[in-house]
Amino acid sequence: MKKARLGFKIYSLDSELLVDEDRDIEFRAKQKKWLSRKKELARKLRCYNKNKEKYNAQRRDVASSIGGRFKVSKTKAKTSGQEWLLSEKEWQDIWIEAGWVVVPGTISPQRPGGVRRTAYSMRGPNKFENTMMARKDLSKAWSKDNCYIVFRSEPLIGSPYHLTAQDCASTG
C-alpha cells in the first residue's frame, strides 16, 4: 500500500480545518536553512575576531613568500584572461637571471658602485621605481620565452642599471 502525497498538510482543530500549502512548507524550510547559515556565519565571525591576529600573521607570511608571490602573479594573469604557462621554477629562474639593479641616484664618491639590490627585491607596481615582469608579445601566454624583467619601462638586462652576480663580486 502506497501513501499519496498531498500538496498540503492538514491541521485540524475542533470546529475548523486548517491547511498548510506546499509554498508555506517550502518557505519554512528555506527560512530554517537561512537562519542556520546566518548562525554559522556569526560563529565564524566570532572565531575570526577572536583569532584575527594569528590569521593575518599567517596570511602575511604566505603572501610574502616566493611561492605566495608566484600564486598572486598567476592568479592576476588568469583573472585578466591571460594564459599562464610558467611553472614556479621557471618564474623564479626569470627573476634570478635578472640579477642586480644599481638604484638610480645612489652613485656618489663614497659609493662609486651605488646601492645594489636584487631585481626581485625591487618588484612593485611603479614602472619608474620598481622592477616588474612583462611579456614581449602581449598576444601570447606568460611563458619562459615570452617574459622578461623591466626597469624604468625598458628591459633590465642590457640597461645601464643592470649588474650580474659576477659584476657584483668583482666590484666588491
Task: Produce the secondary structure layout.
Layout: E1 8-12, E2 17-21, H1 22-64, H2 66-79, H3 88-98, E3 100-102, E4 116-118, E5 131-135, E6 147-151, E7 154-155, E8 162-163, H4 165-171
Antiparallel strand pairs: 1-2, 3-4, 3-8, 5-6, 6-7
Features:
alpha+beta, 3-stranded antiparallel sheet, 4 helices, 2 domains
What does this molecule look like?
With 172 residues, this protein is α+β, with helices and mostly antiparallel strands. The chain folds into 2 domains: 9-63; 82-171, no CATH class. Helices cover 44% and strands 17% of the residues. It is built from 4 helices and 8 strands; from the N terminus they run ββαααββββββα. It has helices at 22-64, 66-79, 88-98, 165-171, and strands spanning 8-12, 17-21, 100-102, 116-118, 131-135, 147-151, 154-155, 162-163. The chain has a 3-stranded antiparallel sheet with strand order 4-3-8. The protein has a 3-stranded antiparallel sheet with strand order 5-6-7, covered by helices on one side. A hairpin with a 2-residue loop joins β6 and β7 (154-155). The protein is elongated, with a radius of gyration of 31 Å. The mean pLDDT is 86.
